[in-house]
Amino acid sequence: MIALERRPNSSRLWLYATPVLAVFLTVLSGAVLFSLLGFNAIEALTAYFISPLRDSYGLGELTIKATPLAIIAIGLAIGFRANVWNIGAEGQLTLGAITGGGLALLFYGAEGPWLPPLMLIGGMVGGAAWAAIPAFLRTRFNANEILVSLMLTYVAGLLLSYLVTGPWKDPMGFGFPRTRMFGDEALLPTLFAGSRMHIGFPIALVTVAAAWFLIARSFIGFQIKVVGLTPPAAGYAGFSNAWIIWATLLTSGALAGLAGAIEVAGPIGQLTPSISPGYGFTAIIVAFLGRLHPLGILFAALLMALSYIGGESAQIELGLPLAVTGVFQGMLLFFLLASDVLVHYRIKLRPAREGV
Amino acid sequence: MNSDTPSTVPQDTPPRLRLREITKRFPGCLANDAVSLDLAPGEIHALLGENGAGKSTLVKILYGVQGADSGTIEWEGQKVDIPSPSAARALGIGMVFQHFSLFETLSVADNVALAMQRGTGRDPALLAEIEKLSADYGLALDPTRSVHELSVGERQRVEIVRCLMQNPSLIVMDEPTSVLTPSEVEKLFTVLRRLRDEGRTILYISHKLQEIRDLCDRATILRGGKVVASCDPRQETPNSLAALMIGRAFDGPKAGKPVQVGEGVPLLSVQGLSMEADSPFGTSLKNISFTVRAGEVFGIAGVAGNGQNTLLAALSGERTAPRDDWVKFEGHSIGRVGARGRRDMGISFVPEERLGHGSVPDLPLEDNALLSGWGRWGLIRHGLISRGKSRKKTEDVIEAFNVVSTGTGAAARSLSGGNLQKFIIGREIMQDPKLLIAAQPTWGVDAGSAAAIQSALIDLARAGAGVVVVSQDLDELFTIADRVAVIFDGTLSESRPTHATSAEDVGLLMGGLFEATP
């Protein structure tokens, strides 16, 4: 008889081993799936998971996609740990792109090396300001931050559309809804020749390290954890719930805004109506895939980025449908959630009970 | 084994329930070690033992919550397998759990309906039945209320009523009287004796040794997972029972303490405190006044749900009072000071709910030490946690209060109730509070731990601090309190020195009789 037995303490080993197990099972199921579809499994998996990583260009593309995912997911994870559900990172990202990109337009023709840092800060302020709205409504009127932040995403999108089709439209742009290209010195420097990898990726790494430190060592991180796990105990300890809501929403908003500014100052280089392929929403999956742990989020962001790029590469090389990307992401999440049981339970094989 | 009658049955009839060599092992401990137990029809059988002795595990096995690793169960002479609680209920076993097994978001009637597998709690016939049964047994209940709105005492009533609704032939009761007034206990005992005389069997788990002597016909004593003795409790004294239970001579909390009434500096003074309850079914406070002096233990008695929760929140600062001067500490108005500010002033607090209010279940003990101790122990430097220091403080608490755990890294929920309570009390006392407010400090705690906790509270008061104990356990209040007042329907009676009053008088006040003669 196979039995599940609750562990007295949750297993640290399995907490970190289950994502690896989930990836392994996903690849295995992927191989079966490809075989059933009549493809050579090895070839298909190679096209999906290995080909994109063969050259430095591919690696650069991976980091470009992983950067906003990681930065946003870090911010969201800090909030999720405190049961503060910011679902509107996409809107905060958009606002960060608007404020960051707006600075590039404001100083157009008068750029200097000081401009990119200023744009990044501007982006953070924009994102934080957008997140301040749900924070205020939640703490003042107990309005649900999930709904407020989500709805503000569409407001931000319309604001961006208005700007790029109206006041900020490129005068030389043949009427296309977009701003002019930013000046060269308003763009983030790339790191290597032959790759589009830019300074955003190191920024993401620093964010990961800072978040780890905040969560593991700081008193604020502890308060966030207690508020999230057991609100009555937080009240007992005298931790202010309102303060935690403000801190986590502003932090996640600022990080989403930072990601927005990095996108427009990095790979895009101008403002257009669609600056993000839904990074703000995908980052929610990344946060949970990474177990709300900064290092896990970094790996999850890279993996998610790979699933995007791998889907494209498999389509080009083997003519596999692009929907395979969604299948892989779905399987990954499925296996991760399923193997979660091992964190709190252990599997025990034991003989059937006597006397049955 | 179907038709064979076991040859070793002592009575003419087979025992209602026979456990044979039940063994259950958990990671790191042997919870039940070859436990055998016979329960006859028409007896009230006590199961005694300290926390961790294996009582709860044994009871869970016979109720089908957990399976035994080995051993057999016979019901009315037939070998049976009890794979689930519904199988147990089908046999006729009813259970009143110590840790409530109620769905908090559902109503009382829904909970009963679920357990009985009949429709929903909106069935008028079911509602009527619940009301009739609770009226018969004097267990006041509104079946339409949500369980999460109920106090601990009311939840226990739900458990008892739910169990009785199923008309079981074996009823397992895990500390059913800990939240009842003396007169309610008497009523319950009348009910239990009636059930016994109807031929039902009651397995009665309690730490109140006097109760067991009053009520039970036989007693089986567990220690360290083994049956160590079987006796007739009526032939024993509370002390001899306790000695069997803990395996050595029992020293209860120190008696004969000096009575200090009206001496000492006024420490906490509550004047005319009125406060709305924070939920529609809570009890609002009406014009509550009392003073606690340094060096005394001030007891607040009362049946659960009479405003204790609102009062405790107002005292701990988790809810602030409408007016600052309604609560004063050392002469300063603190009514509008929050929990953090009050803790900094030296007011410590032990909540009623030890898991989920006084501690974070999933965090290790050292994080739970940080929870309330961070300020007074100086565990935070430049916004960072001093891990080494908090671990040291945790070790100190574990050592000083004999907390049985796997160390500072053990999750709070992995501790037994008594040990977690000792940890929480220890954590608060070792912060050198000027005033300690403790709610139900020994509720559901084994006799050994309860005595240690009560002694610690008395010692704290004798060292010059003020102690407020809110409890429904009159024995406890009369053991440790210097003065006692009674809370009823949001009002507080005048306090009386415990040496000048009796449990019977206080019991009457708990029934609300003081309103007529304020």
Layout of strands and helices, then pairs:
The complex is a heterodimer of chains A (356) and B (518).
Chain A: E1 2-6, H1 12-36, H2 41-50, H3 56-81, H4 89-106, H5 115-141, H6 145-165, H7 200-217, H8 219-229, H9 231-237, H10 241-268, H11 279-289, H12 294-318, H13 323-339, H14 341-344, E2 345-349
Helix pairs in contact in A: 1-2, 1-13, 2-12, 3-7, 3-8, 3-10, 3-11, 3-12, 4-5, 4-6, 4-10, 4-11, 5-6, 5-10, 7-8, 7-12, 8-9, 11-12, 12-13
Chain B: E1 17-26, E2 29-39, E3 44-48, H1 55-62, E4 70-75, E5 78-80, H2 85-91, E6 93-96, H3 108-116, H4 124-136, H5 152-165, E7 170-174, H6 182-197, E8 201-205, H7 209-215, E9 218-223, E10 226-231, H8 238-246, E11 266-275, E12 285-293, E13 297-301, H9 308-316, E14 327-329, E15 332-333, H10 339-345, E16 347-350, H11 365-373, E17 380-381, E18 384-385, H12 387-400, H13 417-429, E19 435-439, H14 447-462, E20 466-471, H15 474-480, E21 483-488, E22 491-492, E23 496-497, H16 503-510
Parallel strand pairs in B: 3-8, 3-9, 6-7, 7-8, 13-20, 13-21, 16-19, 19-20
Antiparallel strand pairs in B: 1-2, 1-4, 4-5, 9-10, 11-12, 11-14, 14-15, 17-18, 21-22, 21-23
The global form of chain A is: globular
Q: Give me the CATH superfamily of the largest domain in chain B.
A: P-loop containing nucleotide triphosphate hydrolases
State the domain count of chain A: 2
Spatial gap, N to C terminus of chain B: 67 Å
Question: What's the pLDDT, averaged over the residues of chain B?
Answer: 84
What oligomeric arrangement do these chains adopt? heterodimer
Q: Tell me the number of helical segments of chain B per DSSP (H or I, 4 or more residues long).
A: 16
Low-pLDDT windows of residues of chain B:
1-11
